[in-house]
Amino acid sequence: MFAKLNISINEVRKFINAFDWSTVRQRDIDSYLDSEKDASKKILDVALLKNNIWDGDGVREMNFPRQIGTRHIFISHSHDDIEDVKKLAYVIEQEFGVYCFIDSMVWQNMNDLIRAFDEEYSLSDDNRSRYSYKKRNYSTSHVHTMLATALLEMINDCECFLFVGSPNSTLKLNYFRNHSDATLSPWIYEENTFVKFIKPIIPEWLLRKRERRYFSGGIGRINEDRKLNIAYKLDMSTFHPISAELLLDLHEERLLENDFLYGLCDSSGALQQLELLLS
């Protein structure tokens, strides 16, 4: 990952609404993006090791498989914005040949995996119709760790991290001194924290493009009663905003694949931070 970008949900809608959706059915988008999720595999379709010990790496790979080298942009978003996010990913792939990663379209549901473990191991000893609080906390911690490590690896593998800001993913709070951006989502907070500490990895194609640019002169251009809410600070200071106008300009230039990624990061200013690393 070498570039951190953010876009508002309004800019996402402006961009996707610039295209004709009359011939595209919702199920076509869903099936296209969902094509790599293997529904035939059982959640715990992994061999037990000795002494009734599960292969944790095998369980993780079965449910949250690593997509090495197959995705360019990791989209961090609220699940409540999933329909707009899916359309954004669909257009970027169809028009620019760049593949986006949306966790729910490739990975199994975390809660289904927790439930599978709980049905087997978390029932209360004195009442088999109820779960043991302690046992269930233990199984949940394992699944959360599997998902967290899978997210970290996937973010690191992707070239760009794109955060979609919306009333569902962020909120403004005055609770934090000198800091108003916050989120109630533990997963968005976790992803935001990951990208703060991941060291940028400069892909070979970017190094080659930078060399060509150096010699040629460049290319120019909530409301539920009794719901637990915990707010986390979001550090957006190193993110570079992009807009529907920028995306449509790149579409007008007919940029594809790495040229699109380069134009996206160059025009947004994200590449300027890398100059220090590359010089």
Structure class: alpha/beta
Number of strands: 8
Strand content: 5-15%
N-to-C series of helices and strands: EHHHEHEHHHEEEHHEEHHH
Q: Provide the low-confidence segments as ranges.
A: 214-224
**What is the gyration radius calculated from CA atoms?**
21 Å
Proportion of helical residues: 40-55%
| Lateral strand order in the biggest sheet | 3-2-4-1-8
How far apart the termini lie comes to 18 Å
**Count of runs of 4 or more consecutive helical residues:** 12
| Overall average pLDDT | 83
- Main β-sheet, in a few words? 5 strands, parallel
* Anisotropy-based shape: globular
Looking at this protein, list some descriptive labels:
alpha/beta, 10% strand, 3-stranded antiparallel beta sheet, 12 helices, 48% helix, 279 residues, 8 strands, globular
